[in-house]
Amino acid sequence: MEDYLILMRLDILTKEAQPSPEQLQIYMKQYQEWVNGIVAQKKFKGGTALSTEGKVIQSNHIVTDGPFVETKESLAGFIIIQAESFEDAASIAKNCPILMGEGNSVEVRKIMSIHKEE
Amino acid sequence: MDHSDIIPNLFRTEYSKVIAVLCKQFGFYQVEIAEDIASETFLTAAQTWGLNGIPTNPEAWLYAVAKNKAKNVIHRDSIFQNKILPRYQQDHYLSVSELDLSEENIRDSQLRMIFALSHPSIPIESQIALSLRILCGFGIDEIARAFLSNKETISKRLFRAKEKLREKNITLELPAPHEWGDRLTSVLRTIYLLFNEGYSSQIQDKILRKDLCLEAVRLCSILLENKETNTPEVNALLSLFCFHISRFDARLDADGEIVLYGDQNRDLWNEDFIKKGEYFFFQSNKEPKFSKYHIEAAIAYWHTVQEGTENKWESIFQLYTGLLELESSTLLFLNRAYALFRAKGREVALVEVEGLNLKANPYYFSLLGELYIESDLAKASECYQKALLLANTEKDKSAIRKRLAQLGSARFL
Protein backbone atom coordinates (compact mmCIF):
# COMPACT_ATOMS: atom_id res chain seq x y z
CA MET A 1 0.00 0.00 0.00
CA GLU A 2 1.25 3.44 -0.89
CA ASP A 3 0.02 6.92 -0.17
CA TYR A 4 -1.74 8.90 -2.84
CA LEU A 5 -2.89 12.47 -2.86
CA ILE A 6 -6.26 13.26 -4.38
CA LEU A 7 -6.50 16.91 -5.34
CA MET A 8 -9.95 18.31 -6.00
CA ARG A 9 -10.26 21.20 -8.40
CA LEU A 10 -13.41 23.23 -8.64
CA ASP A 11 -14.51 25.98 -10.94
CA ILE A 12 -15.51 28.55 -8.35
CA LEU A 13 -15.36 31.49 -10.71
CA THR A 14 -18.42 30.75 -12.74
CA LYS A 15 -21.54 31.45 -10.79
CA GLU A 16 -24.31 29.28 -12.06
CA ALA A 17 -27.70 29.53 -10.51
CA GLN A 18 -27.02 29.36 -6.82
CA PRO A 19 -27.62 25.91 -5.39
CA SER A 20 -30.63 25.56 -3.16
CA PRO A 21 -30.18 24.64 0.51
CA GLU A 22 -31.48 21.18 -0.31
CA GLN A 23 -28.92 20.86 -3.07
CA LEU A 24 -26.17 21.93 -0.66
CA GLN A 25 -27.34 19.32 1.82
CA ILE A 26 -27.03 16.73 -0.92
CA TYR A 27 -23.50 17.94 -1.76
CA MET A 28 -22.53 17.53 1.87
CA LYS A 29 -23.97 14.03 2.01
CA GLN A 30 -22.21 13.04 -1.20
CA TYR A 31 -18.85 14.12 0.20
CA GLN A 32 -19.56 12.34 3.44
CA GLU A 33 -20.53 9.14 1.69
CA TRP A 34 -17.49 9.26 -0.54
CA VAL A 35 -15.11 9.84 2.37
CA ASN A 36 -16.89 7.26 4.54
CA GLY A 37 -16.58 4.74 1.72
CA ILE A 38 -12.82 5.26 1.64
CA VAL A 39 -12.64 5.03 5.44
CA ALA A 40 -14.61 1.77 5.31
CA GLN A 41 -11.99 0.29 2.98
CA LYS A 42 -9.39 1.38 5.53
CA LYS A 43 -7.75 3.47 2.87
CA PHE A 44 -8.35 6.93 4.27
CA LYS A 45 -5.42 8.75 5.78
CA GLY A 46 -6.61 12.33 6.09
CA GLY A 47 -7.43 15.44 4.20
CA THR A 48 -9.26 18.67 4.32
CA ALA A 49 -11.20 21.22 2.40
CA LEU A 50 -9.43 24.48 1.70
CA SER A 51 -10.75 27.99 1.95
CA THR A 52 -11.71 29.49 -1.37
CA GLU A 53 -9.58 32.49 -0.58
CA GLY A 54 -5.85 32.38 -0.95
CA LYS A 55 -2.66 34.27 -1.57
CA VAL A 56 -0.32 33.62 -4.44
CA ILE A 57 3.28 34.55 -3.95
CA GLN A 58 5.25 34.92 -7.13
CA SER A 59 8.98 34.64 -7.66
CA ASN A 60 9.37 38.39 -7.34
CA HIS A 61 7.61 38.20 -3.98
CA ILE A 62 4.54 39.96 -5.25
CA VAL A 63 1.61 38.68 -3.27
CA THR A 64 -1.77 38.52 -4.96
CA ASP A 65 -5.10 37.32 -3.81
CA GLY A 66 -6.02 34.21 -5.57
CA PRO A 67 -5.59 31.75 -6.97
CA PHE A 68 -8.93 31.93 -8.68
CA VAL A 69 -8.32 35.30 -10.27
CA GLU A 70 -6.13 33.62 -12.84
CA THR A 71 -7.54 30.17 -13.16
CA LYS A 72 -10.90 28.57 -13.53
CA GLU A 73 -9.72 25.55 -11.66
CA SER A 74 -8.73 26.24 -8.12
CA LEU A 75 -7.88 23.81 -5.42
CA ALA A 76 -10.89 23.15 -3.22
CA GLY A 77 -9.42 20.47 -1.04
CA PHE A 78 -7.42 17.32 -0.89
CA ILE A 79 -7.38 13.96 0.79
CA ILE A 80 -4.63 11.43 1.29
CA ILE A 81 -5.50 7.80 0.77
CA GLN A 82 -3.72 4.49 0.79
CA ALA A 83 -4.08 2.46 -2.33
CA GLU A 84 -2.71 -0.67 -3.94
CA SER A 85 -1.78 1.04 -7.15
CA PHE A 86 -2.35 4.10 -9.27
CA GLU A 87 -5.34 2.34 -10.83
CA ASP A 88 -6.81 1.61 -7.42
CA ALA A 89 -6.31 5.25 -6.34
CA ALA A 90 -7.82 6.51 -9.56
CA SER A 91 -10.89 4.32 -9.17
CA ILE A 92 -11.46 5.85 -5.73
CA ALA A 93 -10.92 9.34 -7.11
CA LYS A 94 -13.40 8.63 -9.89
CA ASN A 95 -16.21 8.58 -7.35
CA CYS A 96 -15.39 12.01 -5.99
CA PRO A 97 -18.69 13.91 -5.99
CA ILE A 98 -17.21 17.14 -7.34
CA LEU A 99 -16.84 15.38 -10.69
CA MET A 100 -20.58 15.72 -11.12
CA GLY A 101 -19.96 19.42 -11.65
CA GLU A 102 -19.01 20.38 -15.16
CA GLY A 103 -15.47 21.69 -15.49
CA ASN A 104 -14.35 20.27 -12.19
CA SER A 105 -11.47 17.86 -12.00
CA VAL A 106 -9.65 15.55 -9.67
CA GLU A 107 -5.96 14.80 -9.82
CA VAL A 108 -4.26 11.76 -8.30
CA ARG A 109 -0.61 11.92 -7.36
CA LYS A 110 1.52 9.36 -5.64
CA ILE A 111 3.26 10.70 -2.58
CA MET A 112 6.96 10.02 -2.88
CA SER A 113 8.84 9.72 0.31
CA ILE A 114 12.35 10.85 -0.51
CA HIS A 115 13.71 9.98 2.88
CA LYS A 116 12.41 6.46 2.83
CA GLU A 117 14.60 3.66 1.63
CA GLU A 118 12.93 1.97 -1.29
CA MET B 1 -28.16 15.32 16.98
CA ASP B 2 -29.81 14.63 13.66
CA HIS B 3 -27.90 16.26 10.82
CA SER B 4 -30.14 15.14 8.04
CA ASP B 5 -31.35 18.65 7.37
CA ILE B 6 -28.67 20.80 8.90
CA ILE B 7 -27.85 22.94 5.88
CA PRO B 8 -31.45 23.73 4.85
CA ASN B 9 -32.23 24.56 8.49
CA LEU B 10 -29.22 26.80 8.92
CA PHE B 11 -29.83 28.36 5.54
CA ARG B 12 -33.30 29.32 6.68
CA THR B 13 -32.09 30.99 9.85
CA GLU B 14 -28.59 32.26 9.06
CA TYR B 15 -28.59 33.21 5.37
CA SER B 16 -30.83 36.19 5.97
CA LYS B 17 -28.83 37.35 8.97
CA VAL B 18 -25.57 37.35 7.06
CA ILE B 19 -27.16 39.28 4.19
CA ALA B 20 -28.86 41.80 6.49
CA VAL B 21 -25.66 42.59 8.35
CA LEU B 22 -23.58 42.80 5.17
CA CYS B 23 -26.12 45.10 3.54
CA LYS B 24 -26.28 47.37 6.53
CA GLN B 25 -22.53 47.65 6.31
CA PHE B 26 -21.95 47.73 2.54
CA GLY B 27 -25.03 49.66 1.62
CA PHE B 28 -28.14 48.16 0.21
CA TYR B 29 -27.09 48.66 -3.40
CA GLN B 30 -24.54 45.93 -2.78
CA VAL B 31 -27.22 43.37 -2.06
CA GLU B 32 -25.97 41.07 -4.82
CA ILE B 33 -22.48 40.97 -3.37
CA ALA B 34 -23.99 40.20 0.01
CA GLU B 35 -26.04 37.41 -1.51
CA ASP B 36 -22.99 35.99 -3.25
CA ILE B 37 -21.01 36.03 -0.04
CA ALA B 38 -23.80 34.29 1.85
CA SER B 39 -24.27 31.68 -0.88
CA GLU B 40 -20.56 31.00 -1.18
CA THR B 41 -20.35 30.62 2.56
CA PHE B 42 -22.92 27.86 2.42
CA LEU B 43 -21.26 26.24 -0.56
CA THR B 44 -17.98 26.18 1.36
CA ALA B 45 -19.85 24.72 4.33
CA ALA B 46 -21.30 21.92 2.22
CA GLN B 47 -17.83 20.99 0.95
CA THR B 48 -15.95 21.38 4.18
CA TRP B 49 -18.50 19.71 6.43
CA GLY B 50 -18.76 16.81 4.03
CA LEU B 51 -15.04 16.17 4.38
CA ASN B 52 -14.36 17.18 7.96
CA GLY B 53 -17.68 16.72 9.67
CA ILE B 54 -19.97 19.34 11.10
CA PRO B 55 -18.28 21.82 13.45
CA THR B 56 -19.44 22.08 17.04
CA ASN B 57 -20.78 25.57 16.51
CA PRO B 58 -22.00 25.73 12.90
CA GLU B 59 -23.40 29.27 13.21
CA ALA B 60 -20.09 30.66 14.43
CA TRP B 61 -18.33 28.77 11.66
CA LEU B 62 -20.61 30.33 9.05
CA TYR B 63 -20.11 33.83 10.46
CA ALA B 64 -16.34 33.43 10.54
CA VAL B 65 -16.27 32.25 6.93
CA ALA B 66 -18.69 34.99 5.82
CA LYS B 67 -16.49 37.59 7.50
CA ASN B 68 -13.42 36.30 5.70
CA LYS B 69 -15.21 36.22 2.41
CA ALA B 70 -16.47 39.75 2.91
CA LYS B 71 -12.96 40.95 3.63
CA ASN B 72 -11.73 39.10 0.62
CA VAL B 73 -14.32 40.58 -1.69
CA ILE B 74 -13.20 44.01 -0.68
CA HIS B 75 -9.55 43.27 -1.22
CA ARG B 76 -10.25 41.52 -4.46
CA ASP B 77 -12.56 43.98 -6.05
CA SER B 78 -10.54 47.02 -6.84
CA ILE B 79 -13.49 49.10 -7.95
CA PHE B 80 -15.17 48.39 -4.69
CA GLN B 81 -12.03 49.19 -2.81
CA ASN B 82 -11.15 52.38 -4.62
CA LYS B 83 -14.52 53.91 -5.17
CA ILE B 84 -17.31 52.50 -3.09
CA LEU B 85 -15.64 51.49 0.11
CA PRO B 86 -13.79 54.76 0.85
CA ARG B 87 -17.03 56.62 0.33
CA TYR B 88 -18.89 54.26 2.52
CA GLN B 89 -16.22 54.25 5.17
CA GLN B 90 -16.19 58.01 5.11
CA ASP B 91 -19.92 58.03 5.68
CA HIS B 92 -20.01 55.38 8.30
CA TYR B 93 -16.54 55.18 9.83
CA LEU B 94 -16.65 51.47 9.46
CA SER B 95 -14.55 48.81 7.94
CA VAL B 96 -15.32 45.23 7.29
CA SER B 97 -12.81 43.98 9.79
CA GLU B 98 -15.29 45.29 12.34
CA LEU B 99 -18.19 43.44 10.75
CA ASP B 100 -20.57 43.31 13.65
CA LEU B 101 -22.36 39.99 13.94
CA SER B 102 -23.60 40.56 17.46
CA GLU B 103 -27.16 39.52 18.18
CA GLU B 104 -28.19 43.13 18.62
CA ASN B 105 -26.80 44.25 15.28
CA ILE B 106 -28.27 41.25 13.50
CA ARG B 107 -31.70 42.10 14.88
CA ASP B 108 -31.40 45.77 13.99
CA SER B 109 -30.11 44.97 10.49
CA GLN B 110 -32.99 42.59 9.92
CA LEU B 111 -35.62 45.08 11.06
CA ARG B 112 -34.16 47.61 8.61
CA MET B 113 -34.09 44.96 5.93
CA ILE B 114 -37.72 44.04 6.53
CA PHE B 115 -38.73 47.60 5.85
CA ALA B 116 -36.36 48.26 2.97
CA LEU B 117 -37.74 45.24 1.14
CA SER B 118 -41.29 46.46 1.50
CA HIS B 119 -40.46 49.81 -0.06
CA PRO B 120 -43.46 51.17 -1.99
CA SER B 121 -41.44 51.74 -5.15
CA ILE B 122 -41.15 47.98 -5.63
CA PRO B 123 -44.19 46.09 -6.95
CA ILE B 124 -45.89 44.04 -4.28
CA GLU B 125 -45.14 40.63 -5.75
CA SER B 126 -41.48 41.60 -6.07
CA GLN B 127 -41.47 42.74 -2.45
CA ILE B 128 -42.68 39.35 -1.41
CA ALA B 129 -40.29 37.49 -3.69
CA LEU B 130 -37.35 39.57 -2.44
CA SER B 131 -38.34 39.08 1.16
CA LEU B 132 -38.69 35.35 0.75
CA ARG B 133 -35.26 35.27 -0.87
CA ILE B 134 -33.30 37.70 1.26
CA LEU B 135 -35.11 37.63 4.56
CA CYS B 136 -35.99 33.99 4.74
CA GLY B 137 -33.41 32.29 2.56
CA PHE B 138 -35.86 30.72 0.14
CA GLY B 139 -34.46 29.07 -2.95
CA ILE B 140 -35.60 30.33 -6.35
CA ASP B 141 -37.48 27.05 -6.85
CA GLU B 142 -39.38 27.44 -3.64
CA ILE B 143 -40.37 31.02 -4.43
CA ALA B 144 -41.52 29.90 -7.86
CA ARG B 145 -43.74 27.29 -6.24
CA ALA B 146 -45.08 29.72 -3.70
CA PHE B 147 -46.15 31.96 -6.59
CA LEU B 148 -47.22 29.09 -8.83
CA SER B 149 -44.73 30.47 -11.30
CA ASN B 150 -41.50 29.30 -12.92
CA LYS B 151 -37.86 29.79 -12.10
CA GLU B 152 -37.12 32.20 -14.96
CA THR B 153 -39.97 34.52 -14.09
CA ILE B 154 -38.91 34.66 -10.47
CA SER B 155 -35.25 35.22 -11.33
CA LYS B 156 -36.24 38.10 -13.60
CA ARG B 157 -38.55 39.52 -10.99
CA LEU B 158 -35.84 39.40 -8.35
CA PHE B 159 -33.35 40.94 -10.74
CA ARG B 160 -35.68 43.83 -11.61
CA ALA B 161 -36.50 44.42 -7.98
CA LYS B 162 -32.83 44.68 -7.13
CA GLU B 163 -32.31 47.07 -10.04
CA LYS B 164 -35.10 49.15 -8.61
CA LEU B 165 -33.47 49.21 -5.20
CA ARG B 166 -30.29 50.48 -6.80
CA GLU B 167 -32.08 52.96 -9.00
CA LYS B 168 -34.03 54.48 -6.15
CA ASN B 169 -30.97 54.39 -3.95
CA ILE B 170 -32.96 52.73 -1.22
CA THR B 171 -30.99 52.50 1.97
CA LEU B 172 -31.44 50.44 5.06
CA GLU B 173 -32.93 53.35 6.94
CA LEU B 174 -36.06 52.83 8.94
CA PRO B 175 -39.10 54.54 7.37
CA ALA B 176 -40.23 57.99 8.42
CA PRO B 177 -43.00 57.97 11.07
CA HIS B 178 -45.81 58.85 8.64
CA GLU B 179 -44.84 55.90 6.46
CA TRP B 180 -44.91 53.23 9.15
CA GLY B 181 -48.53 52.21 8.57
CA ASP B 182 -48.42 51.40 4.86
CA ARG B 183 -45.01 49.88 5.00
CA LEU B 184 -46.03 47.67 7.88
CA THR B 185 -49.06 46.40 5.98
CA SER B 186 -46.93 44.98 3.20
CA VAL B 187 -44.38 43.67 5.69
CA LEU B 188 -47.15 41.74 7.44
CA ARG B 189 -48.53 40.40 4.19
CA THR B 190 -45.13 38.98 3.37
CA ILE B 191 -44.71 37.38 6.77
CA TYR B 192 -48.23 35.96 6.53
CA LEU B 193 -47.47 34.39 3.15
CA LEU B 194 -44.28 32.95 4.52
CA PHE B 195 -46.15 31.29 7.34
CA ASN B 196 -48.72 29.88 4.93
CA GLU B 197 -45.97 28.49 2.78
CA GLY B 198 -44.60 26.67 5.77
CA TYR B 199 -47.95 25.53 7.05
CA SER B 200 -49.30 24.11 3.82
CA SER B 201 -46.08 23.61 1.91
CA GLN B 202 -46.07 21.04 -0.84
CA ILE B 203 -42.38 21.32 -1.50
CA GLN B 204 -40.82 17.86 -1.41
CA ASP B 205 -44.22 16.69 -0.41
CA LYS B 206 -43.74 17.80 3.15
CA ILE B 207 -46.96 19.21 4.41
CA LEU B 208 -45.48 21.01 7.33
CA ARG B 209 -42.32 23.00 7.34
CA LYS B 210 -42.13 24.04 10.88
CA ASP B 211 -38.91 25.95 10.36
CA LEU B 212 -40.55 28.33 7.91
CA CYS B 213 -43.41 28.93 10.30
CA LEU B 214 -41.03 29.60 13.15
CA GLU B 215 -39.15 31.98 10.87
CA ALA B 216 -42.39 33.92 10.38
CA VAL B 217 -42.84 33.95 14.15
CA ARG B 218 -39.30 35.24 14.50
CA LEU B 219 -39.89 38.09 12.04
CA CYS B 220 -43.07 39.04 13.88
CA SER B 221 -41.18 38.99 17.15
CA ILE B 222 -38.56 41.35 15.71
CA LEU B 223 -41.40 43.75 14.90
CA LEU B 224 -42.86 43.46 18.40
CA GLU B 225 -39.53 44.31 19.96
CA ASN B 226 -39.66 47.73 18.38
CA LYS B 227 -42.02 50.28 19.90
CA GLU B 228 -43.14 51.70 16.56
CA THR B 229 -44.00 48.32 15.09
CA ASN B 230 -45.61 46.80 18.16
CA THR B 231 -49.12 47.35 16.78
CA PRO B 232 -52.46 45.53 17.30
CA GLU B 233 -52.15 44.08 13.81
CA VAL B 234 -48.71 42.57 14.46
CA ASN B 235 -49.94 41.11 17.75
CA ALA B 236 -52.98 39.63 16.02
CA LEU B 237 -50.79 38.06 13.37
CA LEU B 238 -48.45 36.54 15.93
CA SER B 239 -51.44 35.29 17.91
CA LEU B 240 -52.75 33.60 14.78
CA PHE B 241 -49.39 31.92 14.20
CA CYS B 242 -49.21 30.66 17.77
CA PHE B 243 -52.67 29.11 17.63
CA HIS B 244 -51.80 27.34 14.40
CA ILE B 245 -48.43 26.16 15.64
CA SER B 246 -50.09 24.70 18.74
CA ARG B 247 -51.59 21.98 16.51
CA PHE B 248 -48.39 21.11 14.66
CA ASP B 249 -47.75 17.80 16.35
CA ALA B 250 -51.34 16.68 16.02
CA ARG B 251 -51.55 17.55 12.35
CA LEU B 252 -49.38 14.73 11.10
CA ASP B 253 -49.58 11.07 12.02
CA ALA B 254 -46.68 8.66 12.52
CA ASP B 255 -46.40 8.13 8.75
CA GLY B 256 -46.21 11.87 8.17
CA GLU B 257 -49.72 11.95 6.75
CA ILE B 258 -52.10 14.78 7.44
CA VAL B 259 -54.66 14.26 10.19
CA LEU B 260 -57.85 16.16 9.60
CA TYR B 261 -58.87 18.60 12.26
CA GLY B 262 -61.77 16.46 13.43
CA ASP B 263 -59.55 13.41 13.91
CA GLN B 264 -56.70 15.14 15.74
CA ASN B 265 -55.57 13.96 19.14
CA ARG B 266 -56.11 16.94 21.41
CA ASP B 267 -53.50 15.72 23.85
CA LEU B 268 -50.88 16.53 21.23
CA TRP B 269 -51.86 20.17 21.04
CA ASN B 270 -49.26 22.43 22.55
CA GLU B 271 -50.70 24.28 25.54
CA ASP B 272 -47.78 26.71 25.70
CA PHE B 273 -48.45 27.96 22.21
CA ILE B 274 -52.18 28.20 22.94
CA LYS B 275 -51.34 30.36 25.95
CA LYS B 276 -48.97 32.47 23.89
CA GLY B 277 -51.67 32.84 21.25
CA GLU B 278 -54.14 34.00 23.88
CA TYR B 279 -51.59 36.43 25.27
CA PHE B 280 -50.88 38.08 21.92
CA PHE B 281 -54.58 38.06 21.05
CA PHE B 282 -55.25 39.94 24.28
CA GLN B 283 -52.46 42.40 23.34
CA SER B 284 -53.97 42.84 19.89
CA ASN B 285 -57.25 44.00 21.36
CA LYS B 286 -55.81 46.68 23.59
CA GLU B 287 -56.51 49.34 21.00
CA PRO B 288 -59.73 49.59 19.02
CA LYS B 289 -58.01 48.70 15.77
CA PHE B 290 -59.13 45.84 13.69
CA SER B 291 -57.69 43.79 10.83
CA LYS B 292 -58.20 40.57 8.96
CA TYR B 293 -55.52 39.09 11.17
CA HIS B 294 -57.78 39.74 14.15
CA ILE B 295 -60.56 37.69 12.53
CA GLU B 296 -58.22 34.91 11.55
CA ALA B 297 -56.71 34.82 15.02
CA ALA B 298 -60.22 34.63 16.48
CA ILE B 299 -61.04 31.69 14.20
CA ALA B 300 -57.81 29.97 15.18
CA TYR B 301 -58.65 30.64 18.82
CA TRP B 302 -62.04 28.95 18.50
CA HIS B 303 -60.32 25.97 16.93
CA THR B 304 -58.35 25.48 20.13
CA VAL B 305 -61.53 25.40 22.19
CA GLN B 306 -62.91 22.00 23.29
CA GLU B 307 -65.34 20.29 20.96
CA GLY B 308 -68.88 20.65 22.26
CA THR B 309 -68.29 24.13 23.64
CA GLU B 310 -71.38 26.19 23.05
CA ASN B 311 -71.20 28.50 20.03
CA LYS B 312 -67.88 27.13 18.85
CA TRP B 313 -68.78 26.31 15.26
CA GLU B 314 -71.43 28.98 15.04
CA SER B 315 -68.78 31.58 15.99
CA ILE B 316 -66.30 30.19 13.49
CA PHE B 317 -68.96 30.32 10.79
CA GLN B 318 -69.77 33.95 11.57
CA LEU B 319 -66.10 34.89 11.62
CA TYR B 320 -65.56 33.31 8.21
CA THR B 321 -68.50 35.30 6.91
CA GLY B 322 -66.83 38.44 8.27
CA LEU B 323 -63.56 37.49 6.65
CA LEU B 324 -65.30 37.01 3.30
CA GLU B 325 -66.27 40.65 3.41
CA LEU B 326 -62.59 41.59 3.56
CA GLU B 327 -61.32 39.14 0.98
CA SER B 328 -62.67 36.32 -1.06
CA SER B 329 -61.01 33.02 -1.86
CA THR B 330 -62.01 29.48 -2.71
CA LEU B 331 -60.43 28.16 0.43
CA LEU B 332 -62.39 30.63 2.54
CA PHE B 333 -65.70 29.47 1.02
CA LEU B 334 -64.79 25.86 1.71
CA ASN B 335 -63.72 26.54 5.28
CA ARG B 336 -66.87 28.52 5.90
CA ALA B 337 -68.99 25.67 4.53
CA TYR B 338 -67.21 23.22 6.80
CA ALA B 339 -67.94 25.44 9.80
CA LEU B 340 -71.56 25.60 8.71
CA PHE B 341 -71.69 21.80 8.56
CA ARG B 342 -70.33 21.58 12.11
CA ALA B 343 -72.70 24.28 13.37
CA LYS B 344 -75.93 23.41 11.57
CA GLY B 345 -75.46 19.90 10.23
CA ARG B 346 -74.88 18.20 6.90
CA GLU B 347 -78.06 19.12 5.12
CA VAL B 348 -77.79 22.86 5.57
CA ALA B 349 -74.14 22.75 4.52
CA LEU B 350 -74.93 20.60 1.46
CA VAL B 351 -77.18 23.29 0.04
CA GLU B 352 -74.39 25.81 0.50
CA VAL B 353 -71.64 23.62 -0.94
CA GLU B 354 -73.63 22.43 -3.97
CA GLY B 355 -74.01 26.10 -4.80
CA LEU B 356 -70.26 26.71 -4.79
CA ASN B 357 -69.50 24.72 -7.91
CA LEU B 358 -65.74 24.38 -7.56
CA LYS B 359 -65.37 21.45 -9.91
CA ALA B 360 -61.60 21.62 -10.17
CA ASN B 361 -60.85 21.69 -6.48
CA PRO B 362 -60.00 18.44 -4.65
CA TYR B 363 -60.96 19.89 -1.27
CA TYR B 364 -64.37 20.78 -2.63
CA PHE B 365 -65.02 17.14 -3.46
CA SER B 366 -63.59 15.93 -0.18
CA LEU B 367 -65.96 18.20 1.70
CA LEU B 368 -68.86 17.17 -0.51
CA GLY B 369 -68.00 13.52 0.13
CA GLU B 370 -68.00 14.15 3.85
CA LEU B 371 -71.42 15.81 3.66
CA TYR B 372 -72.98 12.94 1.70
CA ILE B 373 -71.76 10.24 4.06
CA GLU B 374 -75.00 9.98 6.02
CA SER B 375 -77.50 10.48 3.23
CA ASP B 376 -75.92 8.82 0.21
CA LEU B 377 -72.89 6.60 0.66
CA ALA B 378 -72.49 5.88 -3.04
CA LYS B 379 -72.48 9.56 -3.83
CA ALA B 380 -70.02 10.20 -0.99
CA SER B 381 -67.66 7.59 -2.40
CA GLU B 382 -68.02 9.06 -5.88
CA CYS B 383 -67.06 12.51 -4.56
CA TYR B 384 -63.99 11.15 -2.82
CA GLN B 385 -63.00 9.40 -6.07
CA LYS B 386 -63.16 12.75 -7.85
CA ALA B 387 -61.14 14.36 -5.08
CA LEU B 388 -58.54 11.62 -5.50
CA LEU B 389 -58.21 12.36 -9.20
CA LEU B 390 -57.73 16.07 -8.53
CA ALA B 391 -55.42 15.82 -5.53
CA ASN B 392 -51.97 17.32 -6.11
CA THR B 393 -49.80 15.71 -3.50
CA GLU B 394 -49.14 12.14 -2.44
CA LYS B 395 -50.03 13.06 1.13
CA ASP B 396 -53.44 14.38 0.11
CA LYS B 397 -54.05 11.34 -2.08
CA SER B 398 -53.16 8.97 0.68
CA ALA B 399 -55.51 10.74 3.12
CA ILE B 400 -58.36 10.46 0.62
CA ARG B 401 -57.64 6.77 -0.02
CA LYS B 402 -57.80 6.19 3.69
CA ARG B 403 -61.19 7.88 3.84
CA LEU B 404 -62.39 5.81 0.88
CA ALA B 405 -61.29 2.65 2.66
CA GLN B 406 -63.27 3.70 5.71
CA LEU B 407 -66.32 4.28 3.53
CA GLY B 408 -65.87 0.86 1.99
CA SER B 409 -66.00 -0.81 5.37
CA ALA B 410 -69.00 1.32 6.37
CA ARG B 411 -70.89 0.02 3.38
CA PHE B 412 -70.60 -3.58 4.53
CA LEU B 413 -71.75 -2.90 8.06
Automatic annotation (TrEMBL), chain A:
Gene3D superfamilies: Dimeric alpha+beta barrel (3.30.70.1060)
Matches recorded under Pfam families: YCII
InterPro entries per UniProt: Dimeric_a/b-barrel (IPR011008), YCII (IPR005545)
Annotated YCII-related domain residues: 12-111
Domain of life: Bacteria
Record-stated family: Belongs to the YciI family.
Protein name (record): Transcription initiation protein
Taxonomic classification: Bacteria, Pseudomonadati, Spirochaetota, Spirochaetia, Leptospirales
TrEMBL record, chain B:
Superkingdom field: Bacteria
SUPFAM superfamilies: Sigma2 domain of RNA polymerase sigma factors, Sigma3 and sigma4 domains of RNA polymerase sigma factors
UniProt-listed GO biological process terms: DNA-templated transcription initiation
Domain (DUF6596) ranges: 183-281
Signal sequence, renumbered to the chain: none
MF annotations from Gene Ontology: DNA-binding transcription factor activity
Domain RNA polymerase sigma-70 region residues, every copy: 29-75
Pfam families: DUF6596, Sigma70_r2
InterPro entries cross-referenced by the UniProt entry: DUF6596 (IPR046531), RNA_pol_sigma70_r2 (IPR007627), RNA_pol_sigma_r2 (IPR013325), RNA_pol_sigma_r3/r4-like (IPR013324), WH-like_DNA-bd_sf (IPR036388)
Protein name as catalogued: RNA polymerase subunit sigma
Lineage: Bacteria, Pseudomonadati, Spirochaetota, Spirochaetia, Leptospirales
